[in-house]
Amino acid sequence: MTQPDIIVIGGGIAGTSAAAMLASGARVVLIEAEQQLGYHSTGRSAAIFIRNYGNTVLRALNAASAPVLLAPDGISDRSLLSPRGQLLIASENETDALEDYAKGAIGIETLTATEATALVPILRQARIAAAIVEWDAQDIDVDRMLQGYARLLRDRGGQTVTGAAVTGMTRADNCWHVSTATGKWSAPIVVNAAGAWADTLARMAGLASIGLTPMRRSAVLLNAPDGYQIEDWPLFGSASESWYAKPDAGRLLVSPADEDPVEPHDAWPDDMVLAEGLDRFGQAVSIPITRPTHSWAGLRSFMADRTPAVGFDPSTTGFFWLAGQGGYGVQTAPALAAICAALCLGSQLPVAQNILDALSPDRFRTT
What is the pLDDT of residues 65-92, one digit of tens each? Predict the structure, then answer.
C-alpha cells in the first residue's frame, strides 16, 4: 500500500478493531511499536465483560458493544463471551460504594451473606454486610477477539506493520507524515490509539495534551484452593474495588485493583502493592494465601472523568483521538471502533449524540 487513506497508530484492541472497521471504506495501515499486537494492556486484561462497569457513558458503550461480542460477524464464528457472573461484596464500611454501583444498573440481584458464600464458599460470611450479583457478566476471549479483528483488517485489504515505533510526525500538503523505526507513511487522517502513549504521540505531532493519566494495575495467579472446584465461581470482589478475583484456567487470578499513576512504560508489578492487595484479599477469605505462581501488571489510561476521548482534534485537521479507555478498553472496543469508523468515513453513528459529546477529546485540554 503506497498511499493509505488512514494511519492507525497502536495495535492494541482499540487500534486493531478501529483499523478493521475503517478498512470497510478506506485504505488503512495499522502501525504498532512492539513486535506483536496487543502486547501491553490488551494482552494483560482481566478479560471480563460487565454491562454495569463504569459511568453512564461507559455503560452505554458496553450496551452498544454487546451485540458484536455476542455475534461477532466477520471476527469469529462464535460468540466471544462465555458465562461467568460478577459478585460484589461489601463490609460495613463499603455499603455506600455498593449502593453507588447499583444505581442505574440493570440485571442486578441483591444477595444475603449466606447466598454470597454459597456462590464463593471461601468468603468469610461474617464480613459480608451486603452483596449483589450480576449474572450476565461474562468472560471475553480476548485473544480470539484481537486476532479476529486483525484478520478482518487483512481480509479488507488493510496492512499491519509491527516493530514500528513512531519517531516523528508532521502535517504538510494535507497529510500527516509519520516516521517510524521501519519507514515512513503519509495519510490525510491519523488515528491516535497509542494507549498510555497517546499524549506523548500528540505532543510529537505538535498538539497539546488532553490530560491522560496512565495507571498501573497488577495481578497474580494463585493455585486453586485445596478441596474446591472453582471453575463455576463468578468474578468476585470488594464493592470499593480494593481487590477482586476470578477463576482463570484452573487457578485463581487475584488483583489488588491498584491504580498508581505512572509514566508510560512496559509495566511490571510492585512487590509491596501485591503484598498489600493479597492481604486485603486474605482478610475477606477463609483460605491461606499461597505463593503466587505468576504476577504481571498493565497500564490503564484515564481521563479525569474516566470517560474515553474519541473524536477529531479541533485544533488541527485529520488527527483522531481514540484514547483513555482505562479498564474498559476490551469491552467497549466494538462500540468505539464503530464510532471511529462513522466519524472518519461519514457513516451512521452507533450511539446517541449526547454520548458522542461526552467523548470529546477537547474537554480537559491542557495548554
Answer: 999 999 999 999 999 999 999 999 999 9
Q: Which residue has the cell 461474617?
A: 126
13 with 42, same domain: the answer is yes
Interior angle at CA 40, CA 314 and CA 296, nearest 5: 140
Same-domain pairing of 91 and 148: no
Instruction: Work out whether the CA dihedral 258, 262, 265, 269 comes out positive or negative.
Output: negative
Answer yes or no: do 129 and 224 share one domain.
yes
The answer to whether the CB of 225 falls within 8 A of the CB of 122 is yes
Tell me how far CA of residue 237 lies from CA of 131, 132, 175, 244, in angstroms: 10, 11, 48, 4
CATH of the domain at 167: 3.50.50.60
Confidence of residue 2 (pLDDT cuts 50, 70, 90): low
Q: Is the pTM of this model over 0.90?
A: yes
Nearest to 365 by CA among 197, 214, 212: 212
What residues form DSSP beta bridges with 360? none
Containing domain of residue 285, as a range?
A: 86-135+213-302
Mean pLDDT of the chain: 96
The torsion angles phi and psi of 89, rounded to 5 degrees, stand at -120, 150
User: Which set of grid coordinates corresponds to residue 114?
Assistant: 449466606
* Residues 182 and 312 both lie in one domain: yes
Please tell me the distance from the alpha carbon of residue 340 to that of residue 236, in angstroms, as a whole number: 33
Burial tier of 87 (Cβ tally within 10 Å: 0-12, 13-18, 19+): buried
pLDDT of res. 3 = 87
| Distance (Å, whole) CA 353 – CA 57 | 11
Same domain, 262 and 297: yes
- Of 302, 325, 350, the last residue of a domain is 302
Whether residue 66 sits in one domain with residue 22? yes
